[in-house]
Amino acid sequence: MKKRKPGKPRSHGGFFSRLTGRKKTKSPAGPSPWAVRLRVALAILAWACLAAAVSVGFLYLHQYIRTAGPAADKVGPIELVGVPDWLEPAWIETITKTAGAASFPLNDQSARHIAEQLKTLSWMDQVRVQTTPSRLRIEALYRKPVARLNLPAGRSAYIDEQGTILDPLPLESMPLVEIRGLPAETVPPPGQICRAKEVDEAVKLLQILQRMDQKCCPEKPLLNEIAYIDISNLLRQKSTAKPHIILVARDGTPIHWGAAYGRAALCFEADETEKLTALYNFYTRSGYTLQGKVRYIELRTPAEDRPRPR
């Protein structure tokens, strides 16, 4: 074996290095400082452009909301929602006048203002005003009158089923029975509940007659024949001979009802079922009228002792 000469380093390239004939090259140098600075500047410019674009977008969005949404710069009319059939034109006109104008800025401030104004109307409750892009929608609970109170000094008021006193406004499509004989000092201002026992009893009797009308004669209600109900003798009992409650027809014919509803037995009168049966039998036999037939109608006497109407 031939010995290798000492001092000569062994080649690590070997056969493959001789085949390729390639020489070793130096690794490429890193980016220059100017290139780095250019990249940083471009990145900052890109972020600045993005921030400017976002700012412009929010500006246009705000402008859109001001012009297209329910903003303070837009105005619109009021709209009553869920108005009952019995509400008269004069009542609707009163709502518009109380609100203050025919059109308002479409914003929450106008909605609150209108709601506060309408709360002063005794026959409106639970008032809600909603702002929309084109108008202000008003929803409320409307108190329906069931009777008219005839008060001294030519004053009058309405009353609803719960006994709330209501301001009197013209009612042409709804005939109301008057309640007479009520002490003026027992009637509170409009918007408050009347606690007088006489009013409770009168309203209760009128509600029962209304239910009887719906059951027996909805086309020609008996209540349309009644002008007023006299309760002056109900609790004070100025006269022991005079009935506690008297219904009076439109021609002045008195109908002696007697004791308050549910108290007939205490006064030894015919019970309420007998009274209602006798009254509606007479009404239907007389051609659905109470006028011009008899001098008075007596309902207090029990059936076995009741004389024929005179």
Concise overview:
The protein is an alpha/beta fold and 310 residues long.
Quickly list its features.
310 residues; alpha/beta; Ubiquitin-like (UB roll); 2 domains; 8-stranded mixed β-sheet; 4-stranded mixed β-sheet; 6 helices; 18% strand
* Uncertain runs: 15-25
Highest CATH level, the class of the largest domain: Alpha Beta
Sheet-strand content, in percent, reads 15-25%
Which series of helices and strands comes N to C? Answer: HHEHEHEEEEEEHEEEHE
Helical percentage: 25-40%
Tally of distinct domains: 2
CATH fold category name of the largest domain: Rossmann fold
The biggest beta sheet is recorded as: 8 strands, mixed
Q: Mind telling me the C-alpha Rg?
A: 45 Å
The pLDDT mean sits at: 83
**What is the structural class?**
alpha/beta
Named at the architecture level, the CATH assignment of the largest domain is: 3-Layer(aba) Sandwich
**What's the total number of strands?**
12
Distance between the termini: 164 Å
Spatial sequence of strands, sheet with the most strands: 7-6-5-8-9-10-11-12
General form: rod-shaped
Number of helices: 6
Describe the SSE topology:
Layout: H1 14-20, H2 33-68, E1 75-81, H3 89-99, E2 103-105, H4 108-118, E3 124-131, E4 136-142, E5 147-150, E6 156-159, E7 165-166, E8 177-180, H5 197-216, E9 226-230, E10 245-249, E11 254-258, H6 272-285, E12 297-298
Parallel strand pairs: 1-4, 5-8, 8-9, 11-12
Antiparallel strand pairs: 1-2, 3-4, 5-6, 6-7, 9-10, 10-11
What does this structure look like?
There is one protein chain. The protein has 310 residues and is of the alpha/beta class. The chain folds into two domains: 68 residues, membrane protein fhac (Ubiquitin-like (UB roll)); 159 residues, Rossmann fold (3-Layer(aba) Sandwich), CATH 3.40.50. It is built from six helices and twelve strands. A hairpin with a 5-residue loop joins β6 and β7. The termini are far apart. About 4% of the residues have low confidence.
